[in-house]
Write a structure and sequence with these properties.
Pfam families: NAD_binding_10. The chain is an alpha/beta fold. The protein has twelve helices and eleven strands. The radius of gyration is 19 Å and the shape is globular.
Amino acid sequence: MTIAVTGATGQLGRLVLDELLTNHEPAALVAVVRDAGKAGELRARGVQVRVADYSDPASLEVALTGVDRLLLISGSEVGSRVAQHANVINAAKAAGVNFIAYTSVLAADTTDLILAPEHKATEELIRASGLENTILRNGWYTENYVQTVATARQTGAVVAAAGDGRVASAARADYAAAAAVVLSSAGHEGRVYELSGDYAWDFKELATALTEIAGREVVYQPVTAAELVEVLTSAGLDQGTAGFLAALDSDTQAGLLATVTGDLSGLIGRPTTPLLQALRSAAAAAS
């Protein structure tokens, strides 16, 4: 059985391959990458490295030839992802791939989360393809707050428009472990997993964790979405990016990232990584 992972040099893809390498022969693993120069470590470990781009259907079909099971990690180009994902799905079908897993987002078909529409559309394409599939609806990554650690060290504050909203985040490695389980074992076909951390924390608890990591008192300063846009643009962000981040905070305030299902810890056979532990590790890796 040959397993391929797209986006294999990215933050999630590399972790998935790390998990797969614990119980698969390296030659049975395919890293689909856009830049071969970033895949030297994977090649040195014996993983097959194949170059393809989500926007290049021909390269994708070549890269997926001989692959049995595929993990499609969602692309990072918001606004272009549905077309790019369609290219991967069509190439997988043409290449004879038997099974595809996809990293979606929590409750993609019902949530108002700003990120959801492209994921919902991709899920529909996968189902329409006729390929056996599993949908991994990933919740929030704790590592999304690494920059918050750096800012808190400097300012002693977490400024957000999240109100009393909660976030059931988990470490990226937790989600990677779940993907590896699904790729490596039977019985997941046709399943939709709603993946999230075991506990939904609020921003006061985030500030407490940051106090531990930063070695100084960190407080949560709630603001409105409009105020947050002003703070972010004053710090140098463009209006579009600032508005997008403020919308994510508004979604958090609405409880769209707070869902705790137990699916993630159930798949990986252990509790998800606690907020403080995951943040501390991520901050150390980033420094």
